[in-house]
Amino acid sequence: YDMVHYGHSNQLRQARAMGDYLIVGVHTDEEISKHKGPPVFTQEERYKMVQAIKWVDEVVPAAPYVTTLETLDKYNCDFCVHGNDITLTVDGRDTYEEVKQAGRYRECKRTQGVSTTDLVGRMLLVTKAHHSSQEMSSEYREYADSFGKCPGGRNPWTGVSQFLQTSQKIIQFASGKEPQPGETVIYVAGAFDLFHIGHVDFLEKVHRLADRPYIIAGLHFDQEVNHYKGKNYPIMNLHERTLSVLACRYVSEVVIGAPYAVTAELLSHFKEPKRRGIFCQIDSGNDLTTDLIVQRIIKNRLEYEARNQKKEAKELAFLEAMRRQEVQPSGEKYGNF
Questions:
Q1: Could you tell me if 1 and 49 are in contact, meaning their C-beta atoms sit under 8 angstroms apart?
Q2: How far apart, in whole angstroms, are the C-alpha atoms of residue 288 and residue 286?
Q3: What residues have CB less than 8 Å from 290, skipping those under 6 apart?
Q4: Please, which residues bridge with residue 189 across strands?
Q5: What span, in angstroms and rounded, lies between the C-alpha atoms of 315 and 88?
Q6: What is its EC number (predicted)?
Q7: What distance in Å separates the CA atoms of residue 256 and residue 239, rounded to the nearest whole number?
Q8: What pTM value is reported for the model?
Q9: In this structure, are residues 164 and 243 in contact, taking their beta carbons and an 8 Å threshold?
């Protein structure tokens, strides 16, 4: 769960719907570096990010990279869940082989249109192509499709596809609850780009301001964010940022495309008193910003490109081995009678 995005959140939402209690194992920096390459976030940051996702009941720090029956039994888990992409060890083995054979493995659909690879590509290619809701520019698609890929690589799991927002996705992520009598309505606004631990620390502190808080997060339009941030910001478009924020356990509602200036009309709409001495400034205690994340990526650019190439080469080799297993020596596939 490095650089947690709404694709990860959607996997956890689907997993939680399959049972009654969701335990999420998060690997250490050492384990990830060994099997995949350097993580963007530290393990402590990643533990806290996953705990902040509203479908998660419990986080297991330092979870082993290979999921075994022993681990499932240790935490009284009936089964484990992973997306319908593959995850491999450093030597190219399926990390879920043992639990699959024991019938204690379930699969959920991978979210189309987002991957950590894609987000890293957006940060490194300093264009605004990803802001467009139209078809991606040829420059962006060419770069994104080739970012960190091995020559001739055609991995079905790491290719870039465009994210398409639907009302169903928003319904799945939204709580659907209106403020109740006795709840304190609190409004916060911003870009919330690359939703990260700095945002989580801030929202957690806002949540503590009241006994029964109802937090509404206003998300600025892409053009507005680009106006005050410049460069290629926001990295995530408004639709993507909406799902990222809705997945946070501290947020009750989102204003999609909030005005930059907090108006009396906006506050009245949410039945919140205004200008009325109710502005409060919160120190999150965390100095992480989207800028700093981008700097981490740029600093380690070559390592990330090497990581992606290595990861794809392993996955392609695994796919080829599976394909060979399906084919008889005569060249006929099983089942083709």
A1: yes
A2: 6
A3: 191, 193, 194, 196, 233, 234, 235
A4: 218
A5: 7
A6: 2.7.7.14
A7: 8
A8: 0.79
A9: no
